[in-house]
Amino acid sequence: MTETKTEALAAEDQADVAATEAEQSSEPAGDEELFRQSEIAADYVEGLLDILDFDGDIDELVSGGRPMVEVVGERLGALVGPRGATLEALQELTRLAIYRETGSPSRLLLDVGGYRANRKKELVAVAKNAIEKVREHGEPVRLDPMSAFERKCVHDVVNAAEGVESESEGVEPNRRIVVHPV
User: Is 21 among the domain residues?
Assistant: First the structure.
C-alpha cells in the first residue's frame, strides 16, 4: 500500500515538473495578450471591491512573463484571509474571469496589500533555514504545507543552493516540501 502511495506522489511530482517545463518551453503569450489579461483581471477585481465595499487602488502590469494585478490600500486583510487562503480563492476566480473572456487559461498573479511580496521574503528565510539544517545534520527537513505559490518560492531558493534539493509530497491542501541532501 505504501509503495502505491509513494508511486502516486512521485507521479504527481513528475506531472508538476512536466507542466512547468511545458509552460516554460511553450511560446509565451505576447505582452499585448498578457496586458489584456491583466486589464480583464483588474476590471473583475474592481467589480468585486465595489460589491464588497472595499477601497483600494488597482495596479495592472506584466512582470516575468505573467499578467499581474496588485490591490493596494488600507484594511484589505479580509481579502487575504488566513495564510492567504482568501487571496488564493480570489486569484482563481479572477483567472476564471479571464478564461471566460479570452478562452485561454491564465497564469495571473494577484496580490493584495503586498501580501505575496511579504510572504515571499518570509519563505526565502524559511528555505535558507531548511538548507542550513540539512547541511548541518545531513537529514531531510519537511516543511509545513504550503500553497503552490509558496512552494514555488521555496523550490526556487533550494534549486539555487548547492548540495541540497527539494521535492513536493502530499496532496492539496496538505502538499509540502521536503528539503534533503543531494
Answer: no
* H-helix or E-strand spanning residue 120: helix 115-137
Nearest to 164 by CA among 143, 180, 142, 141: 180
Global pTM value: 0.73
Q: Note down the domain range covering 169.
A: 118-181
- The 8-class DSSP code of residue 144 comes to P
Residue that is last in its domain, among 113, 135, 150: 113
Arithmetic mean of pLDDT over the chain = 85
Q: Which stretches within 26-114 are classed as H helix?
A: 31-52, 77-80, 85-102
* Euclidean distance between CA atoms 107 and 140, whole angstroms: 31
Among the listed residues 165, 168, 136, the one whose alpha carbon sits nearest the alpha carbon of residue 150: 168
